[in-house]
Amino acid sequence: MVSKLKNWFFGGELWQRNLRILWFGAFMTGIGASIVSPFLSLFIDSLGNFTHKELSFDSGIIFASTYLMTAIVSPFWGKLADQKGRKPMLIRASLGMAITIFLMAFVTSIWQLLVLRMLLGAFSGFTSNSIALMAIITPKEKSGQVLGTLSTGTVAGTLLGPIVGGMIVAHTSYRAAFALTGSIMFLVFLLTVFFVKEKFEPKKKTDILPARDMLKKITSPNIVIGMLFTTMILQLTDKSISPILSLYVRELVSNSQMVTIFSGIVASAPGLVMIFVAPLFGRLGDKIGQYKILFIGISVSLIIYLLLGFTTNIWQVIILRLFIGVSDAALAPSVQIILSRNTPIEATGRIFSYNQTMQSIGAVIGPLAGSAIAASFDYRMVFFFAVICIIFNLINYGTNFKHLKIQN
């Protein structure tokens, strides 16, 4: 039995073996990242006495700080990945995340938490480098299915993480959740060191194309720019509700002991759908074109965020969050696939690092905007803000795909 399991896990071609291992690594990373995220605002509230406006503002700053650092350092890590390979970046990200998250279990003030969240952003990049590695080594005809499957690893972990985190917090403390998360990320580090394989010949700095020359090699720069903008909007809409989601749940749930559990369910709901639907959209996109799948995702997200603004009870929120999983399943893999198919191999690391930078920019603006709107109006107005952002994404889609012939 052990031998068969070993052959299944480590057998097949290089891209198949790496997919299994990186899927598991992404799964564990998803768990590690999501165990505490839905309850971070509540943890911040436990570190002092805050008014409604102060709590909303501080939550936004601490959420945004991680992504601000990621936006700053991602181009550097991307260039280093093109020079040294993706595996060293995976090792760096998993170990850095393990240490910083574990240390969060011992903070006593929001300033300590802020510093560690910034360090967490500086060491991030496990998922983006996993995608870049798989985009290079996977056969083109399998890329939609493979990247769709890889995305379900993070989603599956993100799905399980809040539920596990809610139970841990309900029965122990927020600090125990941080300690467990750090331990999980250290396991990801060990798996990466010993089991991820990459055929890569290190390059000299002089062999790395300058950014201007690299951009000239991209045959459809408008498509790449359009996808980077789409990535930013996706993150902006998602992260704009992150600081207020658990606080909004607290408004809708009368039983205070159930707040963390319902917060976990609400945070996990999109992943419950996405884990099953993303591979299907990936295969469908390989047949009909990823740009069509992208349009479906943007359209569905527009409708769902609009409806979320009119919710009045927790069950409406949960149901609509399940439908968000459909749009996420269409959007995330399709953007990655379109980028990989319009990017020269020698620039893959940097393009995906730029994509992560745009993710981070959206993730910085989103929490700050969401917190400011929630502090000035109410939590429901944040959903309407997301709708406006998605409308801009539809305009971006029409502009970049109307006159261009796109490879499927």
Structural features:
408 residues, mainly alpha, 17 helices, 80% helix, globular, disordered C terminus
Plain-language structure description:
This protein has about 400 residues and is mostly helical. About 80% of the residues lie in helices and about 0% in strands. α2 packs parallel to α8.
What structural category do the secondary elements indicate?
Answer: mainly alpha
Element pattern in H and E:
HHHHHHHHHHHHHHHHH
The tally of helices reads: 17
Number of E-type strands:
0
Helix content: over 70%
- Radius of gyration, in angstroms, nearest whole number: 20 Å
Question: Can you tell me the overall shape?
Answer: globular
Largest sheet data: none
Uncertain residue segments: 403-408
Calculate the terminal CA-CA distance, rounded to whole Å.
Answer: 41 Å
Mean pLDDT: 79
Write the layout of secondary structure elements.
Elements: H1 2-10, H2 14-34, H3 40-45, H4 52-84, H5 86-103, H6 110-122, H7 126-137, H8 143-171, H9 174-195, H10 211-216, H11 221-240, H12 242-252, H13 259-288, H14 290-308, H15 314-341, H16 348-376, H17 380-401
Helix pairs in contact: 2-7, 2-8, 2-9, 4-5, 4-6, 4-16, 5-6, 5-7, 5-9, 7-8, 7-16, 8-13, 8-15, 11-15, 11-16, 11-17, 12-13, 13-14, 13-15, 14-15, 14-17, 16-17
